[in-house]
Amino acid sequence: MAQNLKQRPQVALAVDLAILTVRDSKLQILLVERANEPYRGQLALPGGFIDTADEDLDTAAARELAEETGLAAERLHLEQLRAYGSPGRDPRGRVVTVCYLALMPDLPIPVAGGDARAARWEPVDAVLADGDRLAFDHRVLIADAVERAQGKLENTTLGVAFCPPEFTISELRRVYEIVWRQELDPRNFHRKATSVDGFLEPTGRRTTRGGRPAALYRRGPARVLHPPLLRGHNHSDPGQDKGDGR
Amino acid sequence: MAQNLKQRPQVALAVDLAILTVRDSKLQILLVERANEPYRGQLALPGGFIDTADEDLDTAAARELAEETGLAAERLHLEQLRAYGSPGRDPRGRVVTVCYLALMPDLPIPVAGGDARAARWEPVDAVLADGDRLAFDHRVLIADAVERAQGKLENTTLGVAFCPPEFTISELRRVYEIVWRQELDPRNFHRKATSVDGFLEPTGRRTTRGGRPAALYRRGPARVLHPPLLRGHNHSDPGQDKGDGR
DNA sequence: GAAATAGTGTCTTTCAGACATTATGTT
DNA sequence: AACATAATGTCTGAAAGACACTATTTC
């Protein structure tokens, strides 16, 4: 092992954010247009290099998130996705990035970030379909982030992370349908959501809109779903190889 | 964003391996005894700094795995766990490590690694119970690795990664029982394992041991379990907070 | 009343959990 | 025969999927 750290090759370390929301009936991701080379003019995940030498990865991610959205990280879900470190992923040199996944409700906030970069929401489907618009290997990071988010909705109560503080069961179901790209039966979903202990807490209040007023709920204390809320089998995919292994 | 990478603070990047196996009816992990300061004499995950500047993270992990076990990574399951980068985690300075999780059958191989370090199997329960034996923050990495492995067994067919090329259903069940620390009904497990399409392939061969000979199976092409094979509810844990969020 | 959306109920199928019995080898 | 382990079967209850109906609001 290393006697002296300075003798070791060092790398530049960055933190990138995959901030997802459900907006306009689509799963969208916050992207910035790069002002400088490389990939000038293309879209990239917000992020940046670790500035202070004594900054924790999670802290750095939370800081970036606050800078980009103006939101304190405490109010959002933020978790590490994974690290990416292919040698050629940044033309400037060896850059390893740790990507974080954030889930947030559709707030009117993000447009004006702390710095000059123009941050905007983009539908993930469109962005993934035209990967050439994306800088670096961010197409992969985004795909991984979406996959992680989809899985989270199965096993945890994080669907509510996409919802405002008070929401109806229909709104929550629409989140699931959009993130999973799959229609769900409203009655079965209602039954499941209300039967899971600690998932939803009734507020007593109701909406007032088109049809019959819907009951408003807030997030409950539960964090895991037992048993999970499963996506329907994708029978077109026999589950042969998800490419996770080696 | 950075004009010049060299102006950015750089960090030392390491890759650590959490190599798990089921051995001696216990979940065990391959650890090395540190020969140098810091944490001299304590146990640590095998790993090392990224040597060549042009080495991919996955490649570096596979190389370390081969050095440590003498096994080609193609035959094992190897996946990235996550990155760890707390400022104080290495007293020598800022070191970010990317931890990889490997699952392997109980092979008589690992003892003699390529280098002089004494690598040995240790039961994870014992190591986690006495965290003071471990160097750095490796207690956390190991706990995370075990948790990931447990989850993998629910949703994927990776239980077989702990088994030799041919194995019986009882052996597979024991893997699940040991990793999950939970007894499973042999009959229900047998039913489930054999009913999942592509999970197991009969070899036609049988064991010859104590009681009635058991049919031998090999790993099938399926990689995901649909529906998942769930651990029993842990009713002592109401699932309030898994500490994943922020 | 018509339209829109919310909420409840029922039937069926699938699957997990609990448990008994039979099968096939060794000593 | 005694023993050990493997394999199959049966019953039950929980939960998912499919589907019909009732409820409450606005226009």
What does it look like?
The structure is a homodimer of 246-residue chains. The relative contact order of chain A is 0.15. In chain A, strands 1, 2, 3, 4, 5, 6 and 7 form a seven-stranded mixed β-sheet that branches. The first copy, chain A, is α+β, with helices and mostly antiparallel strands. Chain A folds into two domains: 11-153, Nucleoside Triphosphate Pyrophosphohydrolase, CATH 3.90.79; 156-219, Arc Repressor Mutant, subunit A (Orthogonal Bundle), CATH 1.10.10.10. Helix content of chain A is 24%, strand content 25%. In chain A, a hairpin with a 2-residue loop joins strand 1 and strand 2. Residues 235-246 of chain A have low confidence and may be disordered. The first copy, chain A, contains five helices and nine strands. The interface between A and B is large, with 65 and 67 residues. Chain B binds a DNA duplex (27 and 27 nucleotides) through residues 168-170, 185-188, 190-192, 195, 206-215, 227, 230, 232.
